[in-house]
């Protein structure tokens, strides 16, 4: 025990928490902007315009199927070569935003398509315009359906943000690796890191559970 | 007044409406009967522009429904539509279901919209269900909710597309009663129905559809008790 405290110090915990704060920043920005973008893409794909759907799908499929790690490294190298270097936070977050958006798009598309056509027609027959119907019927009904899947995407984004460490950004995982190398206390550190990830994700999971409870009642 | 002039409509190769002429006067109740697939629903949807048309003309109070410059959202406020499926908005209470269009479309205040909604819900006998969600209502109640929702826009015309066909038999009566009530209040109605007693008792005229053609039309006592068209005779004898 004594040995632990000599190598792993309280200041190291602070170091980890700083990493956690950066993980939160990356995640929140990626989830927020990725969700907004994903809603636009999802809506475009729901328009039943073959060419449009095909085009958007093709692009998003690339982002969905190439491993995030590879996307991060490629994008980071590319902007460096192209002469637009940017801080690792932003190059990492941009990639994560697009990746999140490509996942959210599918969730939103299926949410919109889950709204019965009859429901939408009924609203239009009352005199609601396309956008009024969208805002007051399709969005609330469809997004409710999509919410549990969206939550899954959001939780995955938090976990995937760890990959941004690969391009040198010191978020939670990278911080723990640095400590590992120095202290060789990897099990303890990973335990702490695991707990921190859990603490970050827990509010979201709770939200999902509460939501499902409400749906049942 | 709703006027259909030589209305034609196709789905791909299939011509569903083959030149329909029909004038529905204010205060009139016209029932559309005919075999499945004869084009009754399509006709209604051509009137409220849920479907486009290929030839001919539909006018509502002199306004060309399918003309380029027509404000269809405005026109639809005159045309209440009730479908076979009641299509209640599941995320809204009965009161909110009915208040939505007055609030969003005609920009009534929240309070005003709720007053309108409550009045219409009472009208259809749902005065005690204002704060129920659709999932807490029976099919018949939801269909009456759909009628109240349409009435809240103070439409001049009501279009019914087999409003009772999806209901359990014991719930059909309560919806037909509301439709009778509307007819007695002088509402102009076009009613697609398989309820022959409703067509006979309530309509001013009954129109028989046969493969996209208006084969016979007239007062119910003529069309239903003394049909000329052999297909209509067969149709009436099978449907009872
Ligand atoms: N969106 C569509 N696309 C292709 N064909 C259609 C479409 N809607 C209707 N049809 C076809 O048009 C014909 C007329 O349909 P319609 O729904 O108007 O008949 P209906 O008289 O209302 O029948 P029912 O009593 O079964 O409701 C049918 O053959 C139907 O298959
Ligand atoms: Mg029909």
From TrEMBL, chain A:
It comes from the Bacteria. It is a multi-pass membrane protein. The keyword Metal-binding does not apply. Its main location: membrane. Residues 20-208 form the ABC transmembrane type-1 domain. It is found in: Cell inner membrane; Cell membrane. One of its GO terms (cellular component) is ATP-binding cassette (ABC) transporter complex. One of its GO terms (molecular function) is L-cystine transmembrane transporter activity. The keyword Methyltransferase does not apply. Keywords: Amino-acid transport, Cell membrane, Membrane, Transmembrane, Transmembrane helix, Transport. The chain crosses the membrane at residues 20-44, 56-82, 88-108, 187-204. Pfam families: BPD_transp_1 (PF00528). SUPFAM superfamilies: MetI-like. PANTHER family: L-CYSTINE TRANSPORT SYSTEM PERMEASE PROTEIN TCYL (PTHR30614:SF0), MEMBRANE COMPONENT OF AMINO ACID ABC TRANSPORTER (PTHR30614). Belongs to the binding-protein-dependent transport system permease family. HisMQ subfamily. This is Arginine transport system permease protein ArtQ.
TrEMBL record, chain B:
CDD domains: ABC_HisP_GlnQ (cd03262). The keyword Mitochondrion does not apply. One of its GO terms (cellular component) is plasma membrane. Gene3D superfamilies: P-loop containing nucleotide triphosphate hydrolases (3.40.50.300). One of its GO terms (molecular function) is ATP hydrolysis activity. It is found in: Cell membrane. It is a peripheral membrane protein. Keywords: Amino-acid transport, ATP-binding, Cell membrane, Membrane, Nucleotide-binding, Transport. SUPFAM superfamilies: P-loop containing nucleoside triphosphate hydrolases. It comes from the Bacteria. Transmembrane segments: none annotated. Residues 2-236 form the ABC transporter domain. Belongs to the ABC transporter superfamily. This is Glutamine transport ATP-binding protein GlnQ. It comes from Aquimixticola soesokkakensis. The gene is glnQ_5.
């Amino acid at each position: 025990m004594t040995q632990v405290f000599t190598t792993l110090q309280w200041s190291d915990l602070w170091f980890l928490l700083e990493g956690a704060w950066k993980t939160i920043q990356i995640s929140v920005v990626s989830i927020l902007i990725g969700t907004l973008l994903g809603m636009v893409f999802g809506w475009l794909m729901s328009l039943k315009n073959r060419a449009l759907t095909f085009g958007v799908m093709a692009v998003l499929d690339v982002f969905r199927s190439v491993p995030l790690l590879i996307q991060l490294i490629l994008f980071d190298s590319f902007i460096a070569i192209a002469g637009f270097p940017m801080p690792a936070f932003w190059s990492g977050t941009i990639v994560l935003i697009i990746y999140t958006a490509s996942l959210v798009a599918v969730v939103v598309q299926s949410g919109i398509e889950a709204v019965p056509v009859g429901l939408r027609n009924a609203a239009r027959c009352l005199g609601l315009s396309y956008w009024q119907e969208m805002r007051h019927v399709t969005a609330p009904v469809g997004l409710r359906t999509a919410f549990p899947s969206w939550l899954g995407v959001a939780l995955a984004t938090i976990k995937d943000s760890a990959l941004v460490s690969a391009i040198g950004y010191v978020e939670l995982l990278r911080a723990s690796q640095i400590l590992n190398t120095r202290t060789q206390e990897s099990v303890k550190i990973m335990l702490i890191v695991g707990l921190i990830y859990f603490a970050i994700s827990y509010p979201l999971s709770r939200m999902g559970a509460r939501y499902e409870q409400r749906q049942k009642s | 007044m709703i006027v259909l002039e030589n209305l034609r409509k196709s789905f791909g190769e299939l011509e569903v409406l083959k030149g329909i002429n029909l004038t529905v006067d204010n205060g009139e109740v016209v029932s559309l009967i005919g075999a499945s697939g004869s084009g009754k629903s399509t006709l209604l949807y051509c009137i409220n522009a849920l479907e486009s048309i290929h030839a001919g003309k539909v006018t509502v109070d002199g306004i060309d429904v399918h003309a380029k410059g027509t404000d269809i959202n405005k026109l639809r406020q005159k045309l209440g539509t009730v479908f076979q499926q009641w299509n209640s908005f599941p995320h809204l209470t009965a009161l909110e279901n009915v208040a939505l269009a007055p609030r969003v479309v005609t920009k009534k205040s929240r309070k005003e919209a709720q007053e309108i909604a409550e009045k219409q819900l009472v009208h259809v006998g749902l005065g005690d269900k204002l704060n129920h969600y659709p999932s807490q209502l029976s099919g018949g109640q939801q269909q009456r909710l759909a009628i109240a929702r349409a009435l809240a826009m103070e439409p001049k015309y009501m279009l019914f597309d087999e409003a009772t066909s999806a209901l359990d038999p014991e719930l059909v009566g309560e919806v037909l009663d509301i439709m009778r009530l509307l007819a007695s209040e002088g509402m102009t109605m076009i009613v697609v129905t398989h309820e022959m007693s409703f067509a006979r008792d309530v309509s001013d005229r009954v129109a028989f559809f046969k493969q996209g053609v208006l084969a016979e039309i007239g007062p119910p006592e003529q069309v239903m008790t003394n049909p000329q068209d052999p297909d209509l005779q067969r149709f009436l004898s099978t449907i009872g």
